[in-house]
Design a protein that fits this description.
The chain is α/β, with parallel strands linked by helices. The protein has 2 domains: about 150 residues, Medium-chain alcohol dehydrogenases, catalytic domain (Quinone Oxidoreductase, Chain A, domain 1); about 140 residues, Rossmann fold. About 30% of the residues lie in helices and about 30% in strands. The strands form 3 sheets. Strands 3, 4, 5, 6, 7, 14 and 15 form a 7-stranded mixed beta sheet that branches. The chain has a 6-stranded parallel beta sheet with strand order 10-9-8-11-12-13, sandwiched between helices. Helix 8 links the parallel strand 12 and strand 13. The model has no long low-confidence stretch (mean pLDDT about 95).
Length: about 325
């Protein structure tokens, strides 16, 4: 017998700039083409959610607001037309369902929706959203076998970008200020890691190149270092690609150097249905690793304290999963 569904539920809301609270609200109703799920785990999306919490580079924020696109739930009801799953199944949705005790998600073939196979740990699936973003970025850049790829920034998306680039056949170098995160990147298959922090560390990056593609996942002001002030003196190959993922308000770089390289600048946004399908397949096969990126599995009652850390000490967080059970 399916559990009774209460009329009211808990959710997390950013009621004002910098402050997250629990809020009671009506439990949503299922509708055609959708599933109603009880949350099992939800994953924190560090960059996007901090942007929403404190008002970042995306701009136009108003409060109250909410965010979150990594939801793992157990299906309680399936609406008319849903064929991908049934009551009792565990699913992932990347559809900005936010952090709620119950959520309704579209379950069509082109939605950001996946029924989880038994080989996938549902805690790991709570980071399918950021893994899917990384997969989308690597596919957007059309990474090829034998290319040299540099990942700048070893946060969760950087970690999954490095893995996806290696799966695509690239030789992968990862650089970051945080040595522990770099050790995780090497554990998960990066060919080389370089600790930044001094100008001469970038010389080690240059020696590891030149690179066919650079994924700038840090959001730091490093484009002049990557592209260089003069053509031929940076860390790039001719006609290489730079993919800018880390959030920022504006982008400035040396045009003459980029023109000399005939550089391609790529932008990428979120993920699509096939990115999610490939992440799910690769995790089930054991090819893409998520477990080492999970630093904290936090009971949902402690979520407000996590958002306080996200506001005040964002570097203290890595992969964070909220446990709603």
């Amino acid at each position: 017998m399916a559990p009774a569904i209460p009329q009211r539920m808990r959710s997390i809301v950013f009621v004002e700039k910098g402050r997250a609270v629990f809020q009671d609200e009506d439990t949503p109703a299922c509708k055609p083409g959708h599933v109603l799920c009880q949350s099992v785990y939800t994953g924190l999306t560090n960059g996007t959610e901090r942007n929403c919490l404190v008002g970042g580079n995306y701009g136009g924020w108003k409060w109250p607001s909410r965010c979150g696109y990594q939801n793992v739930g157990r299906v309680l009801e399936a609406g008319d037309g849903v064929q991908a799953c049934g009551v009792g199944d565990l699913i992932f949705s990347g559809d900005f369902c936010q952090h709620r005790q119950y959520f309704v998600a579209p379950a069509g073939p082109e939605g950001l929706f996946a029924k989880l196979p038994s080989a996938v740990d549902p805690k790991h699936a709570a980071l399918f959203g950021v893994a899917g973003v990384a997969m989308h970025d690597v596919r957007r850049a059309e990474v090829r076998i034998g290319e040299k790829a540099l990942v700048v920034g070893a946060g969760p998306i950087g970690q999954f970008t490095a893995q996806a680039a290696r799966i695509a056949g690239a030789v992968v170098t990862v650089c970051d200020l945080n040595a522990r995160r770099l050790a995780i990147a090497e554990q998960m298959g990066a060919h080389k890691s370089i600790t930044l922090g001094r100008d001469d560390n970038w010389e080690a990056v240059r020696q590891a190149g030149p690179f066919d593609v650079v994924f700038e996942d840090s959001g730091a002001p490093v484009l002049d270092t990557i592209i260089g002030a003069n053509w031929g003196k940076g860390i790039l190959k001719h006609r290489s690609r730079v993919v800018m993922i880390g959030g920022r308000d504006r982008v400035d770089y040396n045009f003459n150097a980029a023109q000399g390289y005939e550089l391609c600048i790529y932008h990428a946004g979120h993920l699509n249905a096939d990115d999610l399908r490939q992440v799910c397949r690769l995790v089930a096969e054991g090819t893409l690793k998520i477990g080492p990126v999970i630093q904290d599995v936090v009971r949902i009652e402690q979520a407000v304290a996590v958002y306080d850390r996200l506001r005040d000490q964002p570097d203290s967080l890595f992969g964070t999963v909220f446990d709603w059970q």
